[in-house]
Design goal:
alpha+beta; elongated
């Protein structure tokens, strides 16, 4: 008789356990040493890095932007299907098939196209970005030369796993450099050195050219660079990082040069300046101290109290028209220009990537004994460079508005020339006043600058020349009182003739007389030893003062002074304004009225 207890029988048969479906997206096939971008569209990435599991290995993913992370599967990651899980992002999961990159050729042959392209960069010079690129592609080449066979294989596999990406990056960088080199930017002609901080502002750009420049450099180059610059700091670091750092050096070349180039160009206009032009003076445009208009609320280099634009009723008057300009400076990031704010944001983004790339450089230099250079971070100065530009129609025809409004004035001409001068012709109407005072109003607005103001003008109904006029400069632009030297044509150390000129003119109602005094020293005929440029003999400069002048009768017809003298009815006078006369290229100013 058995004492064993009979087992209980479960009336329902057991069912196999239900497997939970794999919610991981399929990332497809990837290779070791390939830079992998993981898009996490459902999350906003706020941290610089996230810890994750790739299979049973712990890895770190680096933030590329608000929605993308990057990592590189190195030799520690097994081949085959591996599941990536990011616990911090609600266990975001994606699975990859890790494959080995099989080289068709030796590592040396595989890397030959890349190393040749690096050599092209080494052969380039002349820009700040080129210096950075040259230094770091040299370091990448040197590292390959010193590496052992296994390390070279890793570098070759890295290139092949990312070949399309790296080749496009380098080729785009070269194409952009060529495009930049071929871009002909007008050079700013500084008329006097007004900059207290020194330096020239290069490039007078229209509003559209400035917009295009930012878009071309900052979008086509900087966005490209920062999007690809992440390869240099994608974790983990290792021998594959050397290849990425070389490629990043080429990308940084364009990005750094873009910031440097934009930082030296004219983007902002801070003040206007009018000056007297005299086109009859040896075909030169001569600036007087002229009219200086101050723009309120802006740092300007102009006088705070303007003079007056003097014109004669119904007669053409040409004024030099210039604007003080400056390049971008750090404070512009808080200005009103949305495009400039974008420029600063992109530059900050670039610099963030360069700083992270520098962390990778420090690691490979310390652990792999490489010789990469730290990227210099391009910035905008606290104070921009300043200079002066001519206001021509090709630059300011849409942005600058000019107007004159007065009940007793009729504007016949108010126009800019391409060369940077203002043609003004205004006549008095419905008045017997000898002088009408008014204002020339200006308003300037583009995507970077917005200001308005005015300068006073004085329209003369009639002018009297009666009185004494003093010579202030000669036809060649030489100030009165300055000694003029004439030297031997082959020996510039030998003075043949020197003179100092003074003079004046006196007008009555119908007559004029001019007197010139030439305080001259003349060596006369002399012999010269051309071998050592010495005078052969005793030929001193002799004092030979000379007086001269002209006289005659005249009539005043607007701005033209017709006179009857040696050559009848030939116009050699021109009234510049009520207080200055052009006499055959010599300039006289009124001393007194009789």
């Amino acid at each position: 008789m058995s004492c064993d207890k009979e087992e209980a029988v479960d009336p329902k048969p057991k069912e196999p356990p239900i497997e939970k479906p794999d919610n991981a997206a399929n990332g497809g096939d990837i290779y070791r040493y390939q830079m992998i971008t993981v898009n996490v569209s459902s999350e906003t990435l706020t941290k610089e890095s996230y810890t994750a599991k790739l299979g049973d290995k712990t890895i770190t993913l680096t933030r590329l932007d608000e929605k993308n992370l990057i990592f590189i599967p190195d030799e520690n990651i097994p081949f085959g299907e591996q599941r990536l899980v990011i616990p911090e992002l609600k266990h975001f999961a994606i699975k990859f098939e890790i494959k080995d990159q099989v080289l068709a050729n030796s590592p040396e042959k595989t890397l030959e196209p890349l190393l040749n392209k690096f050599q092209e960069v080494i052969d380039v010079s002349g820009t700040p970005g080129a210096e950075q690129a040259i230094s770091n592609v040299k370091a990448a080449k040197d590292a390959f030369t010193k590496a052992n066979s296994n390390q070279r294989k890793i570098m070759a596999q890295t290139y092949m796993a990312n070949k399309a990406f790296i080749d496009q990056l380098i080729q785009s960088s070269f194409s952009n450099r060529i495009q930049i080199a071929r871009t002909s930017l007008p050079t700013l002609q500084n008329i006097g050195q007004k900059a207290a901080i020194g330096g020239n502002v290069h490039g007078t750009l229209s509003n559209q050219e400035k917009i295009d420049l930012i878009n071309k450099h900052m979008t086509a180059i900087l966005v490209m660079s920062v999007s690809t610059g992440g390869v240099a700091f994608a974790l983990p670091w290792g021998w594959h990082t050397l290849v990425f750092l070389g490629a990043t050096g080429v990308a940084a070349w364009c990005a750094i040069d873009a910031v440097v180039e934009i930082a030296r160009l004219t983007f902002y206009y801070t003040a206007i300046e009018f000056g007297i032009t005299n086109t009859n003076r040896s075909k030169r445009e001569t600036l007087s101290p002229g009219i200086k208009g101050n723009i309120l609320g802006l740092n300007t280099l102009m006088a705070s109290t303007p003079d007056i634009l003097d014109i004669v009723t119904g007669k053409d008057r040409i004024f030099a028209f210039n604007m003080n300009a400056r390049s971008p400076q750090s404070g512009d990031r808080t200005g009103s220009s949305l495009l400039m704010k974008t420029l600063f944001e992109k530059t900050d983004e670039l610099n963030g990537y360069l700083n992270k790339a520098n962390n990778a450089i420090n690691w490979v230099n310390s652990n792999l004994y490489a010789g990469f250079s730290i990227f210099k971070i391009p910035t905008f100065p606290n104070v921009g460079q300043v200079g002066q530009v001519q206001v021509g129609t090709n630059i300011f025809d849409k942005e600058l508005k000019l107007s004159i409004s007065h009940p007793n004035l009729k504007v016949n001409k108010l126009a800019l020339s391409q060369s940077g001068s203002l043609l003004l012709n205004v006549e008095t109407v419905n008045t017997t006043e000898s002088t009408i005072n008014a204002e020339l109003k200006y308003a300037f607005k583009d995507d970077f600058t917005n200001f308005s103001g005015s300068v006073p003008i004085k329209v003369q109904n009639n002018i009297s020349l009666v009185g004494t006029w003093k010579l202030v400069s000669l036809y060649s632009g030489i100030p009165v009182g300055e000694e003029v030297l004439y030297t031997h044509p082959q020996c510039s150390n030998i003075v043949s003739f020197k003179t100092t000129t003074t003079g004046q003119m006196v007008f009555t109602e119908t007559t004029f007389s001019s007197q010139y005094h030439y305080d001259t020293y003349n060596r006369g005929s002399y012999a010269v030893n051309l071998e050592n440029c010495t005078i052969a003999g005793n030929y001193p400069l002799k004092h030979e003062p000379v007086n001269g002048g002209y006289s005659g009768t005249y009539t005043l017809e607007g701005m033209k002074i017709k006179y009857i003298g040696i050559v009848p009815n030939i116009n050699v006078f021109e009234l510049i304004d009520e207080n200055s006369i052009n006499y055959g290229g010599d300039i006289f100013v009124r001393v007194n009225s009789n």
